[in-house]
Amino acid sequence: MGALHEGHIALVRRARKLAGKEGIVAVSIFVNPTQFGPKEDFSRYPRPFARDARLCRENGADLLFNPAPAQMYPGGYSTYVDENSLSTVLCGRSRPGHFRGVCTVVTKLFQILAPDIAVFGKKDFQQLAIIRHMVRDLNFPVKIDAVETIRERDGLALSSRNQYLNGEERAQAPVIRRALLTGAKNIRTAHRIVPKIIQTAPLAKIDYVEVLDAGSLQPITATTRRAVIAAAVFFGKTRLIDNMVVNLKSKI
Question: Which residues are catalytic?
Fold first, then answer.
């Protein structure tokens, strides 16, 4: 959605590597209105387009797709794409309609640009899982490639919304990563440990902390072999998300 940072640039560089010398790297920049709730930050979401375009050029993009909302959603628009399993938990529960907007706009982007490969980041684990599920279910001829989360030196996951944080909020925000790292050491108690650590930051307000099966996004069971610890935390009005995937060597 623009306001590009090193996390986004890592996606562009990955796409450039996958495309090789002969392939075309296309970047879409579109602040998608259908994935924002009525009380969310659509109107104030940062839009430094000239800076974003320069970063795309400097890092190997050949094409920049920057449509106007009216081009993507013309008058009378009434067709949407819903995913009804993976989207019912975590951010889907906290932000009703969010993933309907994500699935719809990604479907439209795939239809318009017809990519062979689409590169997404792992920071939004649920979004990545839903897009992979949608591609499978709707038979899109596109391969989904994923890039690891890019972080600040203190562990905070890069996000365009980090710029909303004031100094005190920014100083406390890395508690999310510290909590996830501690929780990953013992997945059985992570659902208690992670919130407890996050709550040591006075300005942190937990939206959710959950430990789920990384494949189904349902509660872990004796057969779970990959778990995800996912968290969404408010600092002031700024909502930050992060996650950690844990490979389980023994039964839960």
Answer: 8
